[in-house]
Design brief:
- It holds the Pfam family Hydrolase.
- The chain has 224 residues and is of the alpha/beta class.
- Helices cover 43% and strands 13% of the residues.
- It has a six-stranded parallel sheet with strand order 3-2-1-4-5-6.
- The relative contact order is 0.18.
Length: 224
């Protein structure tokens, strides 16, 4: 076994970060808050509670949290039938599975949203398991989702590589002791990703697939 290939989904395998931004912006607007879209963009990847606190502050009216989160869920669900996967996403997962990597998703998505994302990626045969927000107490940047993914794959952190697109992904991987690979497809600057712990940075999944031999997934020294 080569090890575990742990993947974030939004912004990594699917081109959905900006859909989340628009849905969150509207959810905040409906609750009477004007939140700049660039601020929302940088918070995407956090769990709902952490995202709301980051954007509205700890002194906000927390009684609004549930309604804001629910509004985002309803708004984002309008895209479920047409969520776009990045070119090469499914092929990358199938290629890694074919090389004996255990592919596990680590995502804040769950339920119908996760099902829609998996349909978009269209590589279920390559995915061994999923660590979703339903399975952990704390989402990224906590190490918990990545640690759970390693346990599901039956590997140690040293045998895993995590691929994500946000600062929160890189911080979660680093805290879990897992090698972190960053993609620029989520719209976060390279310098921010490297500062958060990215060992290697690629444009998107297609670029990572094209350079797989020279990546942390290559045949050289690495997991396993």
């Amino acid at each position: 076994m080569a090890g575990a290939a742990v993947f974030d989904v939004d912004g990594t395998l699917t081109d959905t970060n900006h859909l989340h931004v628009v849905a969150w912006w509207e959810a905040f607007r409906q609750a009477g808050h004007t939140v700049p879209m660039p601020d929302i963009h940088r918070a995407v990847g956090l769990g709902s509670g952490d995202l709301i606190e980051r954007l509205l502050g700890a002194d906000r009216d927390t009684e609004q949290d549930e309604s804001i989160s629910s509004a985002h869920t309803v708004l984002y669900a309008t895209y479920f039938d047409r969520l776009p996967a990045f070119r090469g996403a499914g092929e990358l997962l199938r290629t890694l599975a074919g090389r004996d990597w255990r592919v596990v998703l680590a995502t804040s998505a769950s339920g119908a949203e996760l099902a829609a994302l998996r349909r978009a990626v269209d590589a279920d045969e390559a995915i061994q398991d999923t660590a979703s927000s339903d399975d952990v107490d704390r989402g990224k940047p906590s190490a918990e989702p990545v640690e759970l993914a390693c346990r599901l794959a039956g590997v140690t952190p040293e045998q895993a590589v995590f691929v994500g697109d946000t600062v929160w992904d890189m911080e979660a991987a680093t805290r879990a002791g897992v090698r972190a690979v960053a993609l620029l497809s989520g719209g976060i600057p390279r310098a921010d990703l490297e500062r958060a712990g990215a060992e290697a940075v690629y444009r998107d999944v297609a670029d990572l697939l094209d350079h797989l031999e020279d990546s942390p997934f290559g045949p050289g020294p690495g997991p396993g």
